[in-house]
């Protein structure tokens, strides 16, 4: 019946101190500084470690999962292993029916907020494009340089030489040669 803590911040510049202070009563704490969208080896290790009767403790739901689907997958794994989940800031404890209901409701609301944020971001991108804003990295070579690069390649200049002279990668050389 151990209390296992999990703390996560998204970037190296952020501090785990606040979460760790809230998790001080845990028997063991897993922590990492990783984005929720990438691989999180410490979360995987934490979920492998917890056993029947244990309680996984996090400060907030968004520290645990990246989406409602991911949250439900974690919840299913914990339920299968008979491990409870306690979320301190939202006062959720899945050891009872009310806590489980609240857990799923908050997860759905969090997913809704994420989707709204994505829609607003997409709207902003469309507006910017309509105003003529271009996205992505600017081209490394001018059209004149691209024409010169193609001509030199047709004359038999090695890709390696073109890479060095134009200070671009092999993939970029091939991309410029391919684009018509």
Can you describe what's shown?
By secondary structure, this protein is an alpha/beta fold. 51% of the residues lie in helices and 13% in strands. Helix 6 packs across helix 7. The longest helix has 34 residues, at 97-130. It starts with a strand and ends with a helix.
Topology readout:
Elements (H helix, E strand, L loop, with lengths): L2 E7 L7 H6 L5 E6 L7 H9 L5 E4 L9 H13 L3 E4 L4 E2 L3 H34 L12 H12 L4 H8 L3 H9 L2
Parallel strand pairs: 1-2, 1-3, 3-4
Antiparallel strand pairs: 4-5
Helix pairs in contact: 6-7
Q: Roughly what fraction of the amino acids lie in strands? A: 5-15%
Which CATH class of the largest domain is shown? Alpha Beta
Low-confidence stretches: none
Adjacency order of strands in the biggest sheet: 2-1-3-4-5
**How many β-strands, per DSSP?**
5
The CATH superfamily of the largest domain bears the name Resolvase, N-terminal catalytic domain
Q: SSE order, as H and E?
A: EHEHEHEEHHHH
Rounded mean pLDDT is 89
Shape: elongated
Rg over CA atoms: 25 Å
User: Helix segment count?
Assistant: 7
Measure the end-to-end span.
Answer: 66 Å
Count of the domains: 2
The appropriate CATH architecture of the largest domain is: 3-Layer(aba) Sandwich
Query: What structural category do the secondary elements indicate?
Result: alpha/beta
User: Percent range for helical residues?
Assistant: 40-55%
Biggest β-sheet strands, sense, barrel: 5 strands, mixed
InterPro entries: Recombinase_CS, Resolv_N, Resolvase-like_N_sf, Resolvase_HTH_dom, SSR_resolvase
Keywords: DNA integration, DNA recombination, DNA-binding
Protein name: Resolvase
Active site: 10 (o-(5'-phospho-dna)-serine intermediate)
């Amino acid at each position: 019946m151990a209390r296992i803590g999990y703390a996560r911040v998204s970037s190296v510049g952020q501090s785990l101190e606040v979460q760790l202070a809230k998790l001080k009563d845990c028997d063991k704490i897993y922590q990492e500084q990783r984005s929720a969208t990438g691989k999180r080896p410490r979360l995987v290790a934490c979920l492998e470690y917890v056993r029947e009767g244990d309680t996984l403790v996090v400060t907030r739901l968004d520290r645990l999962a990246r989406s409602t689907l991911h949250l439900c997958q974690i919840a299913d794994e914990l339920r299968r292993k008979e491990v409870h989940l306690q979320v301190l800031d939202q006062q959720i404890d899945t050891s009872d029916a009310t806590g489980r209901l609240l857990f799923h409701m908050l997860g759905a609301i969090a997913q809704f907020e994420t989707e709204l944020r994505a829609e607003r971001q997409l709207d902003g991108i469309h507006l910017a494009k309509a105003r003529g804003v271009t996205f992505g990295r600017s081209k490394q070579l001018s059209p004149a340089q691209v024409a010169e690069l193609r001509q030199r390649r047709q004359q038999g200049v090695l890709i390696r030489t073109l890479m060095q002279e134009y200070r671009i990668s092999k993939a970029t050389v091939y991309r410029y040669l391919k684009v018509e």
